[in-house]
Write a structure and sequence with these properties.
This protein is an alpha+beta fold. It has ten helices and eleven strands. The strands form five sheets. Strands 1-2-11 form a three-stranded antiparallel beta sheet, with no helix packed on it. Strands 3-4 form a two-stranded antiparallel sheet.
Length: about 270
């Protein structure tokens, strides 16, 4: 993008001035990184995921050097972790080094708060800025759906007779939403009469705080993922015994969660 005339402006104005007209097709980016199309899953022309098997195929090869940009307080102008990371990578590429940036996927919640977007700022940002800050490739939504599927299965199990003797007062598995919404932190749900469930205290966490998010980050393969999901404590028996997601009557939601999250884990590295 060296031929672009740079100008002072807001992050949004700068991002929209170069996207999509001056953006590289993701196929070109993969080629620069020596990643075969066999390992690429496209999300349009400018987003893609890399299949996890690419790492397995390249095991044993020499690793590159890692520069870690730690958490820092941003300046009033918005220069923080991402801006610094992108700036360092741009500088390395400018002097002929082969550099690649790895950023965390932003949560929608903080984006609409004081923090703002998480794609960098000024001319040190990544594009498509709006897509990255909002839905991107759908990973957060899949984690939220998996989390809430288990919550729904727990409540439905109790409604259908409660064979596991789950104590509704001791359910510890909370629902989640990728939003900062303090009104939902502690709620009473199941209102509206018998046909709509049973009233109980409940609450929502932000998706990034879901235990499923932590499990996804820690799992090394599908079996490890299934085992960790199965050990999730969802609540307690009326006799104070732990009830896990691996309980026989919750297996359906556990299996479905593994299917969703396997897709994420196998294609987690965004380029």
């Amino acid at each position: 993008m060296s031929n672009i005339k740079k100008f002072p402006g807001s992050d949004k104005e700068i991002a929209q001035s170069v996207y999509p007209d001056h953006a590289f097709h993701v196929k070109e980016i993969a080629k620069k990184a020596n990643i075969s199309e066999d390992f690429i899953e496209y999300y349009g022309n400018y987003k893609a995921k890399v299949d996890y098997s690419f790492l397995q195929k390249n095991q044993g090869k020499q690793d590159g050097k890692l520069i870690l940009v730690t958490a820092i307080n941003p300046t009033p102008a918005g220069e923080g972790k991402t801006t610094t990371t992108v700036g360092v990578a741009d500088s390395l590429c400018h002097i002929g080094k082969k550099a690649m940036v790895a950023l965390r996927e932003p949560s929608i919640g903080p984006i609409f708060g004081v923090k703002g977007g998480a794609a960098g700022g000024g001319w040190a940002q990544v594009i498509p800025m709006e897509d990255i800050n909002l839905h991107f490739t759908g990973d957060f939504h899949a984690i939220g759906a998996a989390n809430n599927l288990l919550a729904a299965m727990i409540d439905n199990h109790i409604y259908q007779g409660n064979e596991l003797n789950i104590d509704p007062r001791k359910i510890v598995w909370r629902r989640c939403i990728d939003m900062n919404d303090r009104q939902l932190r502690f709620i009473t749900d199941g209102l509206g009469g018998k046909i709509n469930g049973f009233p109980r205290e409940d609450g929502f966490d932000i998706t990034t705080a879901s235990e499923i998010m932590a499990i996804l980050c820690l799992s090394s393969n599908i079996e490890d993922l299934k085992n960790r999901l199965g050990r999730i404590i969802v609540g307690y028996h009326t006799e104070n015994k732990q009830i896990t997601a691996n309980s026989r009557l919750l297996q359906l939601s556990l299996t479905r969660m593994a299917q969703w999250l396997l897709c994420l884990k196998m294609r987690l590295n965004q380029i």
